[in-house]
User: Which sequence fits this backbone?
């Protein structure tokens, strides 16, 4: 009975993978959107627990970092950020690697609990690594030379909403069937090159745009909606 259950589970997973691949590589825009919408509805059952256990604590932590003055006076806390960087990246790397080893082990395909544990470890490792990256960036910002280097990303950050939506448009055009249709057809290494190319483009585009305009296009729209009046787009 257990073997039969495992076989049926693997068949269901395979069927889902085929449906996903078909929707994204051969389907129209609306078919791909419908698939994503159905998946989003399925994920709703996880959103509340995820929000309460992960997102809310992160928001509270962020609020505390700002309200306590740590972010404004980050140079005075460089040692704490340095410790956070070493612990976060080091420990996160160990946890993530452990999760991958468990999740990718052949036995995990037959024992669901191992798959869950592996993916859980990997996810926790990502959070810990994120804290490490945060600590590393804040520590480096204490150095004048690094502040100048990071300044190149400022225009991209000022157009965060525009660049975020641009990411979706570019990548869906590459991978979804109504455009490029390369979903599942590009390995990880070329994917990294695509991401790097997009970031370089957005860095240059954001800098050019903000040399001529006060806000990014979607940031301008958001401000217009927020203030309920048309904002001046051109730089004064």
Assistant:
């Amino acid at each position: 009975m257990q073997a039969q259950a495992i076989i049926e589970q693997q068949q269901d997973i395979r069927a889902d993978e085929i449906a996903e691949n078909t929707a994204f590589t051969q389907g129209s825009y609306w078919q791909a959107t419908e698939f994503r919408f159905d998946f989003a509805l399925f994920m709703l059952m996880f959103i509340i627990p995820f929000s309460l256990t992960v997102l809310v604590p992160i928001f509270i932590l962020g609020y505390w970092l700002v309200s306590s003055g740590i972010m404004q006076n980050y140079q005075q806390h460089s040692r704490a950020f340095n410790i956070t960087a070493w612990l976060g990246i080091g420990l996160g790397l160990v946890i993530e690697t452990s999760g991958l080893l468990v999740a990718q082990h052949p036995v995990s395909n037959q024992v669901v609990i191992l798959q869950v544990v592996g993916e859980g470890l990997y996810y926790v490792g990502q959070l810990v690594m994120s804290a490490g990256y945060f600590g590393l960036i804040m520590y480096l910002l204490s150095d004048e030379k690094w502040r100048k280097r990071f300044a190149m990303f400022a225009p991209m950050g000022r157009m965060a909403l525009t660049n975020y939506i641009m990411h979706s448009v570019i990548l869906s055009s590459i991978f979804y069937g109504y455009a490029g249709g390369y979903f599942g057809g590009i390995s990880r290494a070329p994917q990294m090159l695509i991401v790097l190319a997009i970031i370089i483009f957005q860095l240059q585009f954001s800098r050019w745009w903000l040399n001529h305009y006060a806000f990014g296009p979607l940031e301008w729209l958001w401000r217009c909606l927020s203030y309920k009046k048309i904002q001046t787009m051109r730089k004064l």
Remarks:
- The first helix runs from residue 2 to 25.
- The two ends are 73 Å apart (CA to CA).
- The CA atoms of residues 14 and 109 lie 12 Å apart.
- Residues 149-236 form one domain.
